[in-house]
Design a protein that fits this description.
By secondary structure, the protein is of the alpha+beta class. The chain has 20 helices and 14 strands. It has a 5-stranded antiparallel β-sheet with strand order 4-3-7-6-5, with helices on both faces. It has a 5-stranded mixed β-sheet with strand order 9-11-12-14-13, with helices on one face. Strand 1 (about 60-65) and strand 2 form a beta hairpin. The protein is globular and about 100 Å long. The chain starts with a helix and ends in a 7-residue tail after the last strand. The relative contact order is 0.06.
Length: about 550
């Protein structure tokens, strides 16, 4: 009897695992699984799916001593571990109530129904304890074994007569616990593979976005016009597996390549609401059906699109659109690629505003500010990001955002004032990138008083920090630590940047403030701006071999010192 029971359970389990494998390959299921937050619709969907898996487990069961040995609990446990309490309870109710109502194995029907519902509840609340575990399938096996053991206890407590219940538990306890626990583990492995595939796809898309961005830089530095848009569209169409690519400004189509180019004409006005909405709302919008693209041509073959706004200084100047010819074909990795390109293109377009910046700055000052971004820094940063694309995609994404913020702020004019908080975020972006490049050699400490309300010129703190990193710490083999302190002292904000690097001699400090020297352009630029705006000077305290401290005093109201 026992051998036959084990054999049948393994056979039924094989069918369920096959079904799990098929589900794991479904694009619809993948779409739901990869969502960071489940909506009520998602939760109901998964409750029905995994409740159905539980019902199948019941019907695939094997009659034993008036009861039913089965794999019902696998679907319910997976529901809870994946979707949390709502999905676990939902699937448990569906599979549990079904078990109570069917005529098969009525001897344990009530006990099994109750234990199934309780299993969904327990698995749902167990989700928070296993979601950060590196091997979820191991934790899933433990949870499943516990729930199966609890089911046996409930059978002993509820099923009558007790002697028959005890006889049943002795037969089914070990094989059911083992097989259902292993089945849960296999199910979780298949789900984890979906996440792994998504991470690998995301890494590939990030590398592709960087490759495209490096090729489009020469064009977008000229601004967004018909020529640059056409060249960029051609590059994307060649590199990315999409059916069509389009770029627009706020009013008209600048370029369109691919399926539908016979009626999506360059120079035609934007008439689709989805594009107008993306421009107005300043966020990407996806359409997975032909009707949502709102093309007036009935023969148009395009059935999916993602529209990403392109911005300069948070103002939308146009859009990037990627199309496909099949419904529900815009994947999450397509979304990541499109939004990543949109962000990189926006940064490149902001670089095209350099000419405008020149109208507001004299040549020497602009050259000094731009010297803070040197080609080797950009290339080193991009190489670092490419490395993290392979090893830590989330870190790569964080560094891309930091680099984007860094580049955007580096080209703000000194004629404008920004909040102290914005400048701190800019400094943090730079230091995050440098720490990713030199994790063992660069330590950072912030000591910033909360609630300080102060406006300062952009690029006032960052050049000092960059000087401390490059010439103070990186010149030291072991690296070191930089401390940024910002405190309010009566009517002034005192900004202090200290490092324990190589330090400077008095002669080196004097050279930093010499307008005729090419050394210390960034530091000298900051000192000159402090003089012209606030009538103060940059104070430097340094001892060779021990480190350097640079101090600035900024009036909170912006007046000059007397």
């Amino acid at each position: 009897m026992l051998l036959e029971l084990i054999k049948n359970l393994f056979e039924k389990l094989g069918v369920i695992i096959l079904g799990a494998f098929i589900l794991s390959k479904s694009e619809l299921v993948k779409k739901f699984l990869l969502k960071k937050e489940l909506t009520i619709y998602d939760k109901v969907f998964f409750s029905l799916v995994f409740g159905g898996v539980g019902i199948l487990g019941t019907y695939f069961g094997f009659p034993v001593s008036g009861a039913l040995a089965n794999s019902r609990s696998i679907g319910v446990i997976i529901a809870g571990l994946f979707g949390g309490p709502f999905v676990g309870i939902g699937a448990g109710l569906i599979a549990g109530i079904h078990r109570m109502l069917i005529p098969i194995g009525q001897f344990t029907a009530i006990a099994c129904g109750i234990s199934t519902i309780l299993g969904g509840v327990l698995a749902g609340f167990a989700k928070r304890f296993i979601e950060d575990k590196p091997r979820k399938w191991v934790s899933g096996i433990i949870v499943a074994a516990f729930i199966e053991s609890l089911q046996m206890i409930i059978i002993l407590l509820i099923a009558k007569p007790y002697s028959e219940a005890l006889h049943l538990v002795k037969i089914i306890f070990i094989p059911m616990t083992f097989i259902n626990s292993m089945g849960t583990g296999v199910f979780l492995v298949l789900i984890e593979q979906i996440y792994d595939e998504y991470e690998k796809a995301g890494t590939a898309k990030a590398q592709l976005a960087l490759r495209i961005a490096s090729k489009t830089l020469a064009y977008l530095r000229q601004g967004l016009n018909e020529y640059s848009a056409q060249k960029v569209a051609e590059l994307i169409y060649k590199e990315v597996k999409v059916s069509a690519v389009s770029l627009t400004d706020r009013e008209s189509i600048l370029a369109f390549i691919g399926v539908g180019s016979d009626h999506h004409k360059k120079g035609a006005p934007i008439y689709t609401e989805i594009t107008k909405r993306a421009i107005k709302e300043k966020q990407y919008i996806m359409a997975q059906e032909k009707k949502d693209i709102e093309c007036s041509n009935k023969n148009c073959k395009l059935k999916g699109v993602i529209v990403v706004p392109l911005t300069i200084n948070n103002s939308v100047i146009g859009t990037l659109k990627l199309y496909k010819t099949h419904e529900n074909s815009i994947s999450l990795s397509d979304k990541e690629l499109a939004t990543g390109l949109g962000q990189l293109f926006s940064t490149q377009l902001e670089l095209s505003e350099i000419d405008y910046q020149k109208q507001l700055l004299n040549k020497a000052e602009l050259k000094a500010l731009q010297a803070q971004i040197q080609p080797h820094f950009l290339f080193n940063t991009l190489n670092t990001i490419v490395y993290f694309c392979r090893t830590d995609p989330e870190k790569a994404r964080e560094l891309l955002l930091k680099l984007s913020y860094y580049l955007r702020n580096n080209f703000k004019t000194t004629g404008d004032f920004i909040s102290l908080k914005e400048e701190i975020l800019y400094v943090e972006s730079y230091l995050t990138i440098e720490q990713a490049r030199f994790p063992e050699r660069l330590k950072v400490e912030y000591d910033i008083e909360e609630g300080i309300q102060c406006k300062i010129p952009p690029l006032l703190i960052q050049p000092i920090v960059e000087n401390a990193v490059k010439h103070g710490l990186m010149a030291k083999k072991a690296g070191g630590k930089i401390v940024i302190s910002i405190k309010q002292r009566e009517e002034y904000v005192v900004i202090t940047v200290s490092d324990n690097g190589v330090g400077m001699t008095e002669e080196q400090i004097e050279r930093l403030f010499d307008n005729n020297k090419k050394q210390g352009i960034g530091v000298n630029n900051v000192n000159n701006r402090l003089k012209s705006i606030y009538n103060t000077s940059l104070k430097i305290e340094s001892k060779e071999g021990e480190g350097t401290t640079m101090i600035m005093e900024i009036p909170i109201r912006g007046e000059k010192h007397d």
